[in-house]
Amino acid sequence: MIVMKFGGSCLDSPADVRRMVEIIKSEEKRQPKIVLSAFKGMTDQLVAQATSARDGNFDIEPIERKHRQLVDDLPASIRTPLQAKTTELLADLRNTLTAVSCLKELTPSTRDKIVTFGERLAIHTASGYLIEANLKNRPLSGIEAGILTDSNFGNATILDKSLNLVRERLGPIPVPLIAGYFGHDEAGKIATLGRGGSDYIASYIASALRCECVLYKDVDGIMTADPKVVKNARRIREIDYLTAIELGRYGSKIIFEKAIAPAMKSGILIRVTSFAKSSEGTLITNGGRAAAVSILRNLSLITILGMPGLCTVASVLHELGSDHDADSPILTEVLRDEISLVAADSRVERMRELVKNLREGIAVKVRTGLALVAVMGQGFKASQIRETLQRNRIEALIVASAPSGRVICAVMNKEDAERSMNLLHDELQISREI
Asked: What is the domain range of residue 372?
């Protein structure tokens, strides 16, 4: 068996979908299990329409036009029944948005339902293209595929009992087409899995079935840096689970922290490779070694002054990480008489309020317009990072190791971040062969 996940950024036209079918057909003997994201741009459009509906208006015509164009490219014998299913799903989407528009209310549960119409439309559309290529298949979503989650809408976690459900429901099916990004909670409500949710589902299914997981992307594999920022970035041949997790945590748009955890637990192989061309890609394994540099933007520095027991404050603030869509504080530095916290801009006010509620009389300073450059891999030291930046006249507000000890983070003005990334990538020889 093999699990193959296709990202929405790769799937835009009928030619793209037929390219996907060719890849699937080449692995037909391995009983491929296919995980699909929404087609290119659809999730962003659905998020926008959900927000617009809450404000009293919406327009799904571009979404409808996109899927009808894809369906219309199929032969009539396949197109006719698929048009009926597409019409049914679009009607459900329109009715859901109408209800939001009338009530002027968008609950987390309803938002999750709306944004998953992209995946639900994609699996049925792709099913038609597989039928055209004489590949029998079955579109499945959520609990139909065994994906049972908790009820943390927007950032749900797959429950352990899904392992047996996945084996029971997917094992016997030669080519299931599984909707990425979401599952169902125990009450039957749709719950999305957050950033990288489709990769997460693919990795989880591969772990349950004990087989290889291949993630098809619009790049050749995982790179030592974002090639749009660092010209000398190269493809990493093999990377270990823990470094891959850190790369996902500190800004990679190619691999996500959640997607690695199931594979690491079961010891399965993940391959990240190109959709457009043949490539060896990047292997994520237990033994790979690699170094990389990444960037996080839109950050703020919160400094707390004048309070004893600052470590306790840090502990409380770290609990914010359990909140919906929370990812902060990203970095903490504790000095003798102050504590500095780096957080996403969107979390600053919430953290400021929490700190002030702890005790009267403490001072909180906030500095905005920052970014964080993270260097990951074995053998690097904070002193190297600091010296490189100082030598090139870049002010680093904080240079510190992340809690895992595998990443060194430098916080600076956002204007200096991309230059810093290039300097560190080159001077630390991050692109060297390992």
From this structure: 292-427
